[in-house]
Each structure stands twice: as C-alpha cells, then as structure tokens.
C-alpha cells in the first residue's frame, strides 16, 4: 500500500478542484489506476465550493451573542454555528460542542484556519455529493475506477490530538461489515465493523498535516478497499444506539 | 510513504515476538531502515506476554455477577474487567464502558476474539514498556533506529466501525504539537495537535483487518514522524480537560 501527497496551488473560492488536481497529478507524473483512492481535505473542497464566509457580513442573533459569551467564540461565528449545526450539546472556552450532519464536531466544523483574516470556512454543504462529483470528474480524466473521500480532522474523547474522519465518500464501501468473519481460532468475530474510510483519512492526515503544507489531496494506492459503482451513504449511529452517547446525558 | 503487512505464524503465550518478527521479515526479504515504524497488534503482544486467561480459572465476585447480569457479559469476564479497569462509567448489552489505562474502552479492552474457546486476552500490562522492549530487540536485530507502536482498535462516539488507537509507543513522538505553525494565510493555527501515533495505527489497521489475517505487524516506511531516542509517554487528557467528557455527566 502506498500513500502519496499531491501538492496543489492555493485553492480559492470558485476554483475547479478537478482541474487543479488533474494539473498537479500531470505535473508530478502521477498516473491514476483502477482502485486508487483520493482523500481530499474538506477545507479545500469547501473553499472551492464557495463555503468561505466573510464574518463582516454576518449579523449575530441574540442567542448567538449569549452562546458566544458563554463559550468565548466570536458572536458572528456562533451565528454560523447555529445555522449549520443540528444541536449544541455543550462547549468549552473557544468551542461549542455540536452535532453537525450527524457527527460530533466543535463549532459545527467551522474553521478560521486556512482562510484569510476575518473569514471562516463552513463544512461542504453535502460531502457525499461533493465526493460523487469530484469522482465523476476525476474518472473522466483518468478513465479508471476511483474512490474519493472528503476528509476532516477531529479529536476523540480523552485523547490528545486530531485524527482523520470521513465526511463523505464515493466509489468505496466506507464501513465494512466483518460480521460472520472468523477469528484466528475459527470462532465468529466479536468486533464487527471496520471504519475503512475513517482509517484512510487518518492515513492521509499523516501527509496532509494541519498547517501550511498545501497538500489538500492524498493518493492511496493498493489499499484493500471494497469498490462500488455508486456512492454508499456513511452509516451513522443515532445517539440512542451509540455506546458512548447512550451512557451519558447532557448537563 | 509505504505500508507493508508482515504475516507471522500464530502467536502463542510465551512466544518471543521479536524472534518471530525477525524470522518473518527475513523470510519476506524485508530489510528494516532508519525511521521505519512497526505497528503491532496489542492482542498479539499481550498473548505473547502471557496475558491470555482461561475463564474456567476465574471466580466472579458478587459485584461482577451483578454487572454481568446488567450488561449481559460473562460474569468471569466481568470479574477481569473489574480488575483491569480504572472505572466503569456505563454499558450496553455485551459491554461495560470503562476507562482503562486512561482511555475509554469497552470491557477494559478484554477480548475473546483471537483466543481459544473459553479464553480471553487482557490488554498488555504496560504497552509503553512492551513497545520499548520490542523496539530494543528489533533495533539490535536490524542495527537501525525504529519506532514501535502497540495498537488497538476502538469505536468513536456516533460513528460506526473501528479505527486505530495507540496504547503505547517507543522511539517516536506520539502526539505532535503543531501550535505555533502557520496556516495557508500565515496566521497561527487553531488546531493544535496531531495524533500521529493514532493515525499510524489507523493506517496499519487497513492491512491488519480484524479477523483471521494473521498480520499482527505492519511496517510503515517514509512517514513524516519525529523520531526520539527513548520513549515518550502517551499524553492523555484528564476527564476535566476533555471537551467531550467535561460536557457530560454519568447517568
């Protein structure tokens, strides 16, 4: 299995990300093959899709002002958090802890990093659609069957540091069901599902970094991934089904 | 960056894991180099270290019997969970949700998969020490500077499927501090730490799988990892510092 970072010029609102990637791949003489998986940083995809917001254009509501004070967040950014998230379940200084598009994320995934001063970038509106669109464009360019993942970085409970998380995928099975497999002793397996897409994003994060690397795309070649023709929805736990969530209640 | 699975014979209690790995590497003509990182499955390391327990030798306490009934777990296994964990914070049918060695884990990381019928495998007693010992042995064998990680798989809140998590490391910086780095626009970064060791384990999990693959070791070559001479402790959040944990309370 090989993991290769693809450097691009800085991606700006309105850029055609497929064109830019094709240019960078050509320049680096990287030729895509059947089964290759491209992991794209959500911030680059969202920026190209016009999800960058100039904070000076946002007028915070009273609720946003209150929450902004409580969690020490810019009140205009908090207004965007309220618009983007499904639910706010708490917070710490600097971040409201939200459920956004079904997953836990600080400040609804809104980030001021890698945006010009006074601007923030929202998550892609529909990462599944973004993945499908980029995959279609890239497959046309390279004439082979690819997987595409839109990846983000998140922290885990009681762990320090960011790991990878897939927001949307196309062309691959994002979570593989290992139920029915046998263990080393021929017994049915207890552990049941593999978060393949999340693991691919974590592998890609090693090369993407978080700072000024300008590597918004990572090519993963030779990963034992199940390819599919269309796009499979990311399966998501409801709070009631989740082992962690079902054992907690909000303060 | 390259990721290579290393197949070994089935690892049994008392086996010398360094010897077995060296044999497998030789057989496959894989020659280790400076900066290579070996990710080892905790179940293999724990088994070799004699952490396999015959459940018929365990006498459950009254507390274990009660919790076993509550969470539908074998009462002898629950006795082991009570011995191994720091705290039980809840549970679902089939698993008590515990904090063990500082991290969230179902059933204190005790697993009946990949153990003979009627047996379970506890986590390595001290994964940092295991990593340091294996690294010393492997470095003697290959005469170069390596990183070693003992890896496990865990689920994340509101996500389906297992991802990688590092229990202990040696020779590498497990969590890199990116504070002070600049973003694409030259502003200081908001996101601050990279869980490099967890991401390396997630990358390795893609090749390890969860079932009868017999790939307890994965070699990662060319990862941009910071090497160190000794072993750095895995930094761990206290529940109070954790964004998720500080916002919840137990039922």
Please count the helical segments of chain A. 6
The largest sheet of chain A is: 5 strands, mixed
Mean pLDDT of chain A: 90
Give the H and E element order of chain A.
EHEHEHHEEEEHEEEEHEE
Read across the widest sheet of chain A, the strand sequence of neighbours is 1-12-2-8-9
Oligomer classification = homodimer
CATH architectural label of the largest domain in chain A: 2-Layer Sandwich
What is the CATH superfamily label of the largest domain in chain A?
A: CofE-like
Q: What fraction of residues of chain A sit in β-strands?
A: 15-25%
- Give the terminus-to-terminus CA distance of chain A: 45 Å
What spatial form of chain A do the alpha-carbon principal axes imply? globular
pLDDT < 50 stretches of chain A: none
- What is the number of domains of chain A? 2
What is the highest CATH level, the class of the largest domain in chain A?
Answer: Alpha Beta
Helix/sheet category of chain A: alpha+beta
Rg calc of chain A? 19 Å
């Amino acid at each position: 299995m090989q993991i290769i970072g693809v450097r691009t010029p800085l991606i700006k609102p309105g850029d055609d990300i497929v064109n830019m990637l094709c240019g960078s791949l050509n320049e680096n003489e990287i030729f895509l093959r059947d089964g290759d998986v491209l992991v794209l940083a959500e911030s680059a995809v969202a920026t190209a899709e016009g999800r960058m917001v100039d904070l000076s254009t946002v007028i915070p509501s009273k609720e946003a002002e209150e929450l902004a004070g409580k969690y020490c967040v810019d009140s205009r950014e908090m207004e965007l958090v309220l618009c983007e998230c499904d639910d706010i379940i708490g917070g710490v200084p600097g971040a409201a802890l939200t459920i956004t598009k079904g997953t836990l994320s600080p400040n609804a995934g809104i980030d001021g990093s890698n945006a010009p001063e006074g601007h923030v970038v929202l998550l892609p509106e529909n990462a599944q659609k973004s993945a499908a669109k980029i995959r279609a464009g890239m497959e046309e360019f390279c004439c082979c069957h690819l997987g595409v993942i839109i990846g983000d970085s998140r922290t885990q409970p009681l762990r320090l540091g960011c790991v990878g998380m897939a927001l949307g995928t196309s062309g691959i099975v994002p979570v593989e069901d290992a139920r029915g497999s046998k263990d080393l002793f021929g017994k049915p397996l207890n552990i049941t599902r593999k978060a393949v897409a999340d693991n691919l994003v974590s592998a890609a994060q090693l090369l993407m970094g978080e700072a000024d690397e300008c590597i918004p795309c990572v090519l993963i070649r030779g990963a034992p991934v199940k390819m599919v023709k269309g796009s499979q929805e990311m399966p998501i736990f409801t709070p009631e089904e989740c082992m962690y969530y079902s054992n907690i209640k909000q303060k």
